[in-house]
Design a protein that fits this description.
The chain has 262 residues and is α/β, with parallel strands linked by helices. It has 10 helices and 10 strands. The protein has one domain: TIM Barrel (Alpha-Beta Barrel). The strands form 2 sheets. The protein has an 8-stranded parallel beta barrel, surrounded by 7 helices. A two-stranded antiparallel sheet has the order 8-9. The radius of gyration is 17 Å and the shape is globular. Bound molecules: 5-bromo-uridine-5'-monophosphate.
Length: 262
């Protein structure tokens, strides 16, 4: 099914969260809807990827707890690269506890995620307290939260009712929730951003249940906004050139979606 399409910059006018607004504007300005999932395990590899792919991405997604030689300077350096190449930092932490605990996990510990990650994500499973807890730490720093509404892995336990209830929970916090991690567009309200993992240039699976769709399938057919690509780029012989290919595929799908409904 094709979805009526509005330009990202027009969507920005509907956002109640300042970061969401700026991110939508950046997409059209920089002409990229590619997020890199930087799943590497050393600080040097992480910084190298950020430098190499920075000019071609809108979001740099981390799993900061897989970095073997983490040091607080790393996040400062990442922030400097993000500023230079104009992309946002997204820590894919998938918070999933009570409000009080997630607030500590977000602000404190070794990683101090709230100090450097523009975007974080959370499961709705614990109920709305998780959003309230994260918002207490994130709102004052102008951060944004994505709720996990669907996952890409096969035989996951998400279902239509859970997704629907996740949407209701998010809709009650438009000042902090900026959108969803999902496999498809889920609402007709233009303010919500959809970021989609499980993307490669060829559809397929990995050996551990990951399921891949193409950029065109996500952006054009399923109506999502940003493609998240990990191994498709990170494991390529030339990540920079490969990122450019994904960028072109994602952008072409967006332009095609716009032209099909104009
Ligand atoms: P890949 O190498 O492109 O398969 O990496 C996908 C990334 O997205 C990886 O960091 C996952 O943790 C993340 N991910 C996912 O694959 N599927 C999901 O539903 C969610 C996150 Br939520």
């Amino acid at each position: 099914m094709k979805h009526a399409r509005m330009r990202y910059q027009e969507r920005a006018t509907y956002c109640k969260n300042p970061l969401a607004k700026n991110l939508f504007l950046l997409l059209d300005d920089k002409k990229t809807n590619l997020a890199l999932s930087a799943d590497v395990t050393t600080a040097d590899a992480l910084l190298k990827l950020a430098e190499e792919t920075g000019p071609d991405i809108c979001v740099f997604k981390t799993h900061i707890d897989i970095i073997e030689d983490f040091h607080p300077d790393l996040t400062h350096e990442l922030q400097a690269i993000a500023k230079k190449h104009r992309f946002y930092l997204f820590e894919d932490r998938k918070f999933a506890d009570i409000g009080n605990t997630v607030k500590h996990q977000y602000e404190g510990g070794i990683y101090r995620i709230a100090d450097w990650a523009d975007i974080i994500n959370a499961h709705s499973l614990p109920g709305p307290g998780i959003i309230a807890g994260l918002a207490e730490a994130g709102l004052k720093k102008q951060r944004g939260l994505l709720m996990l509404a669907e996952m890409s892995s096969e035989n996951n336990l998400f279902n239509a009712d859970y997704t629907e209830r996740t949407l209701r929970m998010a809709e009650a916090h438009p000042e902090f929730v900026i959108g969803y991690i999902s496999q498809q567009k889920l609402s007709n309200e233009p303010q919500w951003l959809y970021m989609t993992p499980g993307i490669q240039l060829t559809a397929g699976t990995d050996a551990l249940g990951q399921q891949y769709n193409t950029p065109e399938s996500a952006i054009l057919e399923k109506g999502t906004d940003i493609i998240i690509v990990g191994r498709g780029i990170v494991k390529a012989t030339d990540p920079k050139t490969t990122a450019q290919k994904y960028r072109a595929a994602g952008w072409e799908a967006y332009e095609k979606a716009l032209s099909e409904c104009s």
